[in-house]
Amino acid sequence: MSNMKLGVMGGGAWGTALAQVLSEGQPELLLWAREPEVVAQINESHENSSFLKGHRLREEIRATGELDELSDCDGILVVTPAQHLRASLSALSDTDAALILCSKGIEADTRMLMSDVTRELRPNNPLAVLSGPTFAHEVARGLPTALTLACEDEALWERLYPAIAKTAFRPYFSDDIIGAEIGGAVKNVLAIGCGVVDGAGLGQNARASLIGRGFAEMQRYGKDRGARPETLAGLCGLGDLVLTCSSTSSRNFSLGRGLGAGESAESLMSNRSTVAEGAFTAPVLQQDARSREVDMPIVDAVCALLSGEAHVRQVVERLMSRPLVAERR
Ligand SMILES: NC(=O)c1ccc[n+]([C@@H]2O[C@H](COP(=O)([O-])OP(=O)(O)OC[C@H]3O[C@@H](n4cnc5c(N)ncnc54)[C@H](O)[C@@H]3O)[C@@H](O)[C@H]2O)c1
Ligand SMILES: O=P(O)(O)OC[C@H](O)CO
Predict the structure, then answer these.
(1) Where in this chain does the entry annotate a coiled-coil region (predicted)?
(2) CATH architecture assignment, domain 184-320
(3) What are the pLDDT digits (tens) for 246-288?
(4) Which of 29, 84, 85, 149 meets the CB 3.0–4.6 Å disulfide criterion with 171?
(5) Residue 293: phi, psi to the nearest 5?
(6) Cα angle vertex 276, ends 272, 278, to 5°?
């Protein structure tokens, strides 16, 4: 049992699943949730029917609506949606806790990664990123899961892994924080594309081609932002890309499936209570890639579909009529 006191900031599906797995063997795990009804459900009925229905949660999880309570923790897993990270961190009181970022996205107005936002607001806190192929409902059930824990140095990994590694939850060390973040942010956009392929009935060949060429886009963009190729080829890049591009359990894939079936992004987004990060990441990723002169045609296609600028048939035509080039670029 680790002596490190962990807390979780965010009571959505992923924050709740993380609280469930990380409370194994701990006397108490503190989970901050924004919604009073989520706090009440967890403390009174040991469930989070708003965001992670159907899972009985450990009694060691204690929910709170008071963000200040997290300040006493040695490590805080930050699990808010990417576009709310800045506001959520700003509301947190001073703390020495290590901040373990679990959100997958790029900040819309600034093109900053989650680690950039965190370093701007909390320059003195030790920083890590936890990312990989992790559907919340599977982690909550205790199914075997492996993922990347990228830490700013190996000393932080040595402090964190005893509290994070569990029977069915296996972190691998990386010191490439940027790589871990780029993998998680970009795969969400590509998963929307794969959902479109599915919804429009374009076939399994097209889905696999999108994963392969999407991975090439992730590598090109990652290289320009300083990610290491081997990080992107690991759990937090290719591993998560394969998971999210293959299953209707993915919110991003499901959103794309609706688009592929002809529904508008506007109606699909307005009917959601859960977050499909790719829809927010896609436009900022496109802008950033263009400013860096990084070619990302699949990301462009997803943006065109999300904005309603083009239909599926048009984006397929655009992608298939691009100049023929060497695969390795
Ligand atoms: N669900 C998963 O399987 C999973 C796995 C790995 C990573 N993630 C990442 O975790 C992050 C959180 O996703 P989730 O699945 O827990 O969310 P969710 O869709 O289950 O729930 C939405 C969350 O957004 C929060 N929220 C809504 N409006 C907010 C606001 N104005 N300010 C702050 N928070 C607000 C809600 O409180 C809730 O916690 C995302 O970046 C996601 O990509 C999710
Ligand atoms: O449901 P999604 O598409 O947000 O994906 C959840 C996780 O990121 C999968 O690793």
Answers:
(1) none
(2) Orthogonal Bundle (1.10)
(3) 999 999 999 999 999 999 999 999 988 899 999 999 999 999 9
(4) 149
(5) 55, 40
(6) 145
Q: Residue ranges of the domains in the chain?
A: 6-175, 184-320
- For residue 223, say whether it is annotated as part of any ligand binding site: no
Nearest residue CA, atom 4 of ligand 2? 251
- Note the CATH number of domain 6-175: 3.40.50.720
Give the torsion sign (CA, 324, 326, 328, 329): negative
Tell me the CA distances in angstroms from 239 to 59, 148, 246, one per residue in order: 32, 10, 11
51 Cβ below 6 A of ligand 1: yes
What is the model's pTM?
0.98
Is the CB of residue 12 below 6 angstroms from any atom belonging to ligand 1? yes
Q: Is the pLDDT of residue 329 over 80?
A: no
- Per annotation, catalytic residue among 5, 53, 166, 187: 187
- Which atom number of ligand 2 is nearest to the Cα of residue 240? 10
CA of 9 to the centre of ligand 1 (A): 10
